[in-house]
Amino acid sequence: MLKRIIPVLLLLIVTSCVKDVDFDQVDDISISPVLESSLIFFDFPASEFEEPTGTAIVTVGDDLELDVFNDEFLRDNLIKAEFFFEITNSIDRSFRADIIMYDENDQITYAFAIDVTPNGNTEVITTHTELFEDALLEQLKNTIRLELVLNMFPSASGIPLNQNSPGNIKMRSKATLFFLIDTEDN
After folding, report:
1. What is the sign, positive or negative, of the torsion defined by CA atoms of 174, 134, 147, 90?
2. What top-level branch of life does the organism fall under (predicted)?
3. Which long-range contacts (CB under 8 A, 24 or more apart) does 69-73 make?
4. What is the pLDDT of residues 82-130, one digit of tens each?
5. Exposed (0-12), middle (13-18) or buried (19+): which is 80, by Cβ within 10 Å?
6. If you write DSSP's letter for every residue of 70-96 in order, what string do you get?
7. Which sequence spans correspond to the domains of the chain?
């Protein structure tokens, strides 16, 4: 008799714990992933800025294509972006890093500058975060090319840099992209 009651009790216990499942809940999912990616990096020795007088402004530059903003998923779901820059300077000169963004018509969509100060040949670390939200985020989404222009300013002492001058200037940066993927709106 007990052998017959146990299966019936087990069946009642198992079925009594079952609840109706609302499969439409999958339509109401909202997730907020964050993506980090390297952006710009360089490492220039002082000799890269060799100039004979110590009084010249020396400029180096580079371009980076940003075709990621052409992606429909990114354009529709990106809610915020942060560009973080870390510049380490051990060259006895002041620098300015200009970051200029362009649209498909080669028009400037946004620009900002980072001033980098020296401390003799001791390493000085300068950090900068540029935040893109709301209207600035829309300007970023229209960007297809980023240009970096690094200007070295004249020496206060007038001593020129040469092949044997000590120090480096290094930049590393990353982009952090914040998304909101809300299936309720789709």
Report:
1. negative
2. Bacteria
3. 69/140, 69/141, 69/142, 69/143, 69/144, 70/144
4. 999 999 999 999 999 999 999 999 999 999 999 999 998 899 999 999 9
5. middle
6. G-HHHHHHEEEEEEEEEEEE-SSS-EE
7. 42-124+138-185
